[in-house]
Specification:
The structure is a homodimer. Chain A contains 20 helices and six strands. Chain A has three domains: 2-113, MgtE N-terminal domain-like (MgtE N-terminal fold), CATH 1.25.60; 129-230, CBS-domain (Roll); 261-431, Orthogonal Bundle (Tetracycline Repressor, domain 2), CATH 1.10.357. Chain A is elongated and about 90 Å long. In chain A, strands 1-2-3 form a three-stranded mixed β-sheet. The first copy, chain A, has a three-stranded mixed β-sheet with strand order 4-5-6. In chain A, 68% of the residues lie in helices and 6% in strands. The longest helix of chain A has 31 residues, at 335-365. The first copy, chain A, is mainly α. The interface between A and B is large, with 103 and 103 residues.
């Protein structure tokens, strides 16, 4: 039995760190800790930990013996170590850092000062800097020395004595050149770089637009601080998309299929209470017209259709606009033009859908006036929905909030409240029910 | 004036093709065609076209003189040319291909046979294949020759005489080795490859998990067909995320902030009619209980709250599950365990929110029974919503449909219909209103 386990462990050691990470996250806490300890003894724990979600790896690491944890952390890539440390309490962070080799600790504490959703939070400081008066042969010697620890050697950056960024050098050009060629004849000086404080989403858009593999990160004095590689950016894109998708359905950001039911309950309940509050707000409008409904119960049948359709048309608009924002397609559009377009669409959709509903209502109840009320209420609500679908995300963005997250809640509140109000007020006017 | 235009054009020529592409897509059709013609005269039209969305670049190219169009297309990367051609009518495709140089045309027609959402549709055939008995110096000579046309030279693949894939060679290892070293001592034979028919989403998940920069594409005989690089995969990820986000809000897949209002109208209307049909289905339930509502109008106030809350809890579940599917996190979960978890959550959420609503109802109307009806209807609906939130996406996936797209419509139909039915049936039972 022990023999068989050993064989399995040997096989695991040969796998890609991402595969080992997958095994670790599927095991129970106790088993995972045991496996991590065995990996540690074979100096194979740091890489898989770097491949895991930081919240998972942080939990795993804190279950280990403190001394082991510190040694593993010191062997991790500094950017992965930082992501992990950020998940731990301040106390533990300090304790661990005070035990790490002082140079390594300095690098990590520097990185910890950058917000995780900024270029600084994404970058690795392990970037290869070369001097322009080097020859290709000298550059290859430096690359050989740095190959192990550097984030990548496919791109290196030319810097002057004060570490100011001067240009980019690709391994492609270096490898294909003659050994005695000077780097100054290979360097591309039109280098695009990102400031360390740039937003992670903007960095992702740059990678997407220009198909970069790596970008240098600089400070305000144009000094080279680090490098961002495309694999870090892919994680940002995935997270961003998850954030936007979760936002639309009011799902808590930290939840996934792996979350336990009790954690899910605690995280989802606040959102459900928000939804309840907005639903009650809309119900208040209905309650005001209880008398009207008692007389014309058909209004109760129609009200859900009209409010729902407003919500649907408005959500279409919000979705297109917030997605346009996320993909960086909004800069070339002006708010008032989009507003005009969506109001126009609201009128057209509202007329077509409204007339359909009006005819159905007339056929059902035989009352032309009730059909007209249904049609007009639908029209008003889709026009408001279209306008709100533009104004809510643009407004939230102007206030510095993420429009993908709260827009939906605001919209449905407006379309429910106004959908009901339009219907009952028109009924009151046309049918003189009160 | 002409002088100024010339200066602007010269400046444009110095920009990154992605920037030129951006300018092209912002101009009017007529201006864009003119600019493309000028770029063509400077042999600078192919790259920007390759950076544009294929539907835009196809439109632009078809406005050009046919002969020019053919010459530009022949200069494009074959994978970009294919994406563009796929947007053109079959007729035009054939006409263009018959005028392209026959070797180039063969490459393009071969690529056209692969579905665009498969590994074959993503790959470039311009991959560097090396023989294992070569020396590093010989390999560098080959790379130098192929550097211009190859998709990338950072990764090359070792193949035998019959072009069977044997391993991967990185420029990193080649560049750092001594010139006389044999490639057989540098090759990594544990190479991960994708079959040409693999789904684009699966390819994206592989890149995401292993942080690859490039992957070789093989046929059933393990022969090397091409290479997929990470920049192509980023586009897949973006499109996938857009698809999922659009699906949630029933937004037509081809719409963006750039779409004209009339195209938007035509594309959105079918979806709105689907929503109208499902809303009318739910309204039929309400219509059945018109008498009940006329007697207890408070039910009309409550019904929207209960149906809406069911929709919200169910959408949370659907969102987490479909996102888990998209991120490849679902394999390690079993359907029945997720179902149990979500039913448990439905019970807990339903009780907490239901009791809240029950108390509010009691305080409002002073009728304890009406409060109990509201509470129970809420509980039943959130339990059904939780269960449906698991069953609908799993069912759609089992049927081979994209769960992110239609799940929401099915769910709200169920939660509306049952939400109303629970409330009215309970009212009938408890309050004996009929």
């Amino acid at each position: 039995m022990m023999e068989k386990k050993k064989v399995i462990f040997q096989e695991l050691l040969r796998k890609h760190p991402a595969d080992i990470a997958e095994v670790l996250s599927q095991l129970s806490d106790e088993q995972a800790t045991k496996l991590l300890h065995r990996l540690y003894l074979r100096q194979a724990a740091a890489e898989p930990l770097g491949e895991m979600d930081p919240d998972e790896s942080a939990e795993l690491l804190s279950d280990l013996d403190r001394e082991e944890a510190i040694k593993i952390l010191a062997r991790m890539d500094p950017d992965d170590a930082v992501d992990l440390l950020e998940e731990l309490p301040q106390e533990t962070q300090k304790e661990i850092l005070s035990n790490v080799d002082s140079k390594e600790a300095q690098v990590i504490s520097d990185l910890l000062t950058y917000p995780s959703d900024s270029a600084g939070g994404l970058m690795s400081p392990e970037v290869v800097a070369l001097s322009l008066d080097m020859s290709v042969q000298q550059a290859i010697d430096v690359l050989r020395q740095r190959a192990e620890e550097a984030e990548t050697i496919y791109f290196a950056y030319a810097v002057d004595d004060q570490h100011h960024l001067q240009g980019v050098l690709s391994l492609r050009d270096i490898a294909l050149a003659q050994p005695e060629t000077r780097l100054s004849s290979l360097v591309e000086i039109d280098v695009i770089s990102v400031p360390v404080e740039a937003d992670a989403e903007e960095v992702a858009l740059l990678f997407d637009k220009y198909n970069f593999y790596a970008l240098p990160v600089i400070d305000q004095q144009v000094k080279l601080l680090g490098i961002i590689t495309i694999d870090d950016v892919i994680d940002v894109m995935r997270e961003e998309a998850t954030e936007d998708i979760y936002g639309m359905a009011s799902v808590p950001m930290n939840e996934s299929v792996d979350t336990s039911w009790f954690s899910s309950l605690r995280m989802r309940l606040p959102w459900l209470y928000v939804r309840l509050a907005t639903a009650i707000l809309a119900a208040l409008v209905v309650a005001t017209f209880e008398q009207t409904i008692a007389k014309v119960a058909a209004l109760a049948v129609l009200m859900g259709v009209i409010a729902g359709q407003g919500g649907s048309t408005g959500m279409q608009t919000i979705t297109i606009i917030t997605r346009g924002m996320a993909l960086g397609e909004m800069q070339r559009h002006q708010g008032h033009k989009l507003l005009r377009k969506e109001i126009l669409l609201g009128v057209a959709n509202g007329l077509i859908i409204g007339i359909t509903l009006g005819i159905i209502t007339y056929l059902w109840k035989g009352q032309p006036l009730l059909g007209a009320v249904a049609c007009l209420a639908m029209l008003f609500n889709t026009v408001v929905a279209g306008a709100m679908g533009v104004l809510i995300p643009l407004g939230l963005q102007a206030l510095g909030k993420d429009p993908a997250i709260a827009s939906g809640v605001f919209l449905t509140t407006v379309t429910d409240v106004l959908g009901f109000a339009f219907l009952f007020l028109l009924a009151h006017l046309f049918l003189r029910v009160i």
